[in-house]
Write a structure and sequence with these properties.
- By secondary structure, this protein is α+β, with helices and mostly antiparallel strands.
- Helices cover about 35% and strands about 35% of the residues.
- It has one domain: Small protein B (Small Protein B, Chain: A).
- The protein contains four helices and nine strands; from the N terminus they run βαβαβββββαββα.
- The chain has a seven-stranded antiparallel sheet. Strands 3-6 form a two-stranded antiparallel sheet.
- A hairpin with a 2-residue loop joins β8 and β9.
- It is globular, with a radius of gyration of 18 Å.
- The two termini are about 35 Å apart.
């Protein structure tokens, strides 16, 4: 099951993507397998040469004895070179790290992380307008067939 961050592609222009691992507890991995995750307000932060996922809401598993904080910071597993490379790119510019999706690959939970630049309001409106025009064209083509 793959859980997407729908707001990310609307709010941000995606520049680069990378797949990373994530450090979880047993109850959290069960919640991810069940699809009980919300990434809409989440982002990643580089802190002391480590990357942490902030504000990702993973609901606690019902059968778990120990309930952890649903919005706690979770460490992302990236290579040192990748972290330093992205840290250098983020430093002087208005860039951020945004999780695009979280999914299970084999037995491991993975996060698709993106280096992104915020879109201006008029860019978002233009993108929505373009989508509606394309949708209308496709409808017209289907009606003609």
């Amino acid at each position: 099951m793959k859980i997407f961050n729908r707001k990310a592609r609307h709010k941000y222009q995606i520049l680069e993507k990378v797949e990373s691992g994530i450090v979880l507890t047993g109850a959290e991995i069960k919640s991810i397998r069940a699809g009980r995750v919300d990434l809409s307000e989440s982002f990643a932060r580089v802190k002391e040469d480590e990357v942490f996922l902030v504000n990702a809401h993973i609901l606690p598993w019902k059968g778990s004895e120990k309930f952890s904080d649903a919005r706690r910071q979770r460490k992302l597993l990236l290579h040192r070179r990748q972290i330093l490379n992205w840290q250098g790119k983020i430093a002087g510019k208005n860039l951020t790290l945004v999780p695009l999706s979280i999914y299970i690959k084999g037995n491991l939970a993975k996060v698709e992380l993106a280096l992104a630049k915020s879109k201006a309001k008029f860019d978002r409106r233009a993108a929505l307008k373009k989508q509606t025009i394309n949708r209308d064209i496709e409808r017209e083509l289907k009606e003609q067939d």
